[in-house]
């Protein structure tokens, strides 16, 4: 199984991907992971979707709205960040924007004067620290190797810090089996009560929603694409009936059915 995820090697995405594929390749853009699976170049892609402190990874949500792929599994993994550098004196902290945000409290308290630099991934930040002794990185402590020191561990602002990743597959592998299902809905309409109408088909059938997220459609201001996750499988009649209602409501737009899947909790 060949999988594509966010690199270079050593990212949290890499750690999650190891749970589903033996051959892992890297790119530094989430959109190209989704495109790589949609184009058939990779069997699997793994992208971060949501963090318990910082919320949605919007680049991933937007890429899922733009490409035809299936979600075949969800991986939840704890995120425990370390501060890595060549020495305790540094001027810059480089990491993924999500990781910098997850450690905002620690950085404000312990290193209020450093400059924060957002890079493509935590592992890219580690490479910056490896090349430049004025740069520290935030990432998984195992990235230290022989040339970086772990200056502090568990620096995330909450110990419960966890990120949810989705495992993507070509659309031909979309499944109806699984305890959760995901949809992306673009009604291409804007009127009072539209969101209520989109959610009622699930409420009426006693289907619990685990997430609703609105993202700008990019078409015009105030126009949205809705990402809806539910705790029910597409194999269930109630989910199919709710989906039929949603498709009718989105007759002027579109509905993308990402599929049904189960959740794996991965510790590393
Ligand atoms: O940079 C990484 O290591 C990633 O895998 C990306 C990412 C993210 O986008 O949220 C994944 C998990 C952590 O929340 C921090 C960063």
Structure notes:
The two termini are 20 Å apart. Helix 7 packs antiparallel against helix 8. The strands form 2 sheets. Strands 1, 2, 3, 4, 5, 11, 12, 13, 14 and 15 form a 10-stranded mixed sheet that branches. Strands 8-7-9-6-10 form a 5-stranded mixed sheet. The protein has 8 helices and 15 strands. With 268 residues, it is an alpha/beta fold. It folds into 2 domains: 179 residues, 2-Layer Sandwich (Alpha-Beta Plaits), CATH 3.30.70.260; 72 residues, 3-Layer(aba) Sandwich (D-Maltodextrin-Binding Protein, domain 2), CATH 3.40.190. It is elongated, with a radius of gyration of 20 Å.
Could you state the order of secondary-structure elements as H and E?
Answer: EHEHEEHEEEHHEHEEEEHEEHE
By DSSP (H or I, 4+ residues per run), the number of helices equals: 8
How is the main sheet built?
Answer: 10 strands, mixed
**Approximately how much beta-strand content do the residues carry?**
35-45%
CATH superfamily of the largest domain: ACT domain
Helix proportion: 25-40%
Mean pLDDT: 96
What is the architecture of the largest domain at the second tier of CATH? 2-Layer Sandwich
Write down the domain tally: 2
Rounded to an integer, what's the Rg over CA atoms? 20 Å
| CATH top level class name of the largest domain | Alpha Beta
Shape: elongated
| CATH topology (fold) name of the largest domain | Alpha-Beta Plaits
The stretches of 5 or more residues where confidence is low (pLDDT under 50) are none
- What structural category characterises the helix and strand content? alpha/beta
Organism: Halosegnis marinus
Pathway: Amino-acid biosynthesis
Protein name: Prephenate dehydratase
Pfam families: ACT, PDT
């Amino acid at each position: 199984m060949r999988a594509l995820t966010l690199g270079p090697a050593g990212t949290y995405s890499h750690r999650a991907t190891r749970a589903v594929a033996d051959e892992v390749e890297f790119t530094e853009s989430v959109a190209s992971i989704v495109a790589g699976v949609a184009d058939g170049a990779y069997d699997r892609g793994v992208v971060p979707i949501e963090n318990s402190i910082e919320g949605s990874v919007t680049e991933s949500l937007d890429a899922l709205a733009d490409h035809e792929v299936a979600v075949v599994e969800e991986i939840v993994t704890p995120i425990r960040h370390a501060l890595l550098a060549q020495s305790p004196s540094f001027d810059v902290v480089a990491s993924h924007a999500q990781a910098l945000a997850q450690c905002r409290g620690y950085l404000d308290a312990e290193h209020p004067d450093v400059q924060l630099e957002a890079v493509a991934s935590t592992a890219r930040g580690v490479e910056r620290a490896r090349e430049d002794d004025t740069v520290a990185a935030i990432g998984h402590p195992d990235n230290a190797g022989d040339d970086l020191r772990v200056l502090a561990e568990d620096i995330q602002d909450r110990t419960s810090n966890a990120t949810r990743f989705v495992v993507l597959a070509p659309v031909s592998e979309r499944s109806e089996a699984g305890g959760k299902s995901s949809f992306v809905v673009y009604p291409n309409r804007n009127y009072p009560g539209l969101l209520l109408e989109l959610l009622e088909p699930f409420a009426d059938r006693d289907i619990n929603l685990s997430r609703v997220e609105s993202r700008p459609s990019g078409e015009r201001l105030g126009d949205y694409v809705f990402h809806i996750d539910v705790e029910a499988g597409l194999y269930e009649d109630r989910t199919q009936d709710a989906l039929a209602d949603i498709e009718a409501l989105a007759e002027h737009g579109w509905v993308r059915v990402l599929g049904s899947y189960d959740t794996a909790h991965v510790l590393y």
